[in-house]
Amino acid sequence: MTRKIDFYFDFISPYSYLAHQKIKTNKDVNFNYKPVLLGGLHNLQGITAPAFIKAKLKHMISDCDLIAKKDKTTFIWNSKFPINSLNIMRGYLFLNNEVKGVYLNQMFDAYWKDNLDISKEEILKIVLEKCKINSNDFFDGIKNPKIKDELKIITQEAHDKEIFGAPTFVVNNKIFWGQDRLEFALDEYNK
Questions:
Q1: How do residues 90-134 score in pLDDT, each as one tens digit?
Q2: Three-state helix/strand/coil letters over the chain
Q3: CATH architecture of 5-189
Q4: pTM confidence score
């Protein structure tokens, strides 16, 4: 069995972006990216997202700024937060493995570094072009019932494992929630 850390993420999660910035440079660990629809996961768990609680949102913004500054990561709170991430999350599942890494970096950067509204088709097309992904194939592919079902299934599986937010790391059947738990997940991985 291949050792791995499952990384449950959504592009609209600022903490997923901050975690991705750390793990994308770690070539010694096998991270298995597991896209979830965060809004759907919150609904399944009966949770109100921090974006809709004014006091939490205010502190989440300043918290992300603190983390990014400490980690020397370029980060801009997206002025369109939150957006509907359905198409971009389905997109990750549609793409073949050769372009997934580029897609991950470009989508995270477009939203959390460049302050773009990647839920808008015209903006998404520009980002896809940077990834060298044919936008017609992409938009056709994300409508495929198999892709739609796969995102639902992964989100449901996350709920069934009692995952309630992103990012979440799962290693050796142990759950580590939050970007600040990456070190604990790595410790578990290296046991």
A1: 999 999 999 999 999 999 999 999 999 999 999 999 999 999 999
A2: CCCCEEEEECCCCHHHHHHHHHHCCCCCCCEEEEECCHHHHHHHHCCCCHHHCHHHHHHHHHHHHHHHHHHCCCCCCCCCCCCCCHHHHHHHHHCCHHHHHHHHHHHHHHHHCCCCCCCCHHHHHHHHHHCCCCHHHHHHHCCCHHHHHHHHHHHHHHHHCCCCCCCEEEECCEEEECHHHHHHHHHHHCC
A3: 3-Layer(aba) Sandwich (3.40)
A4: 0.95
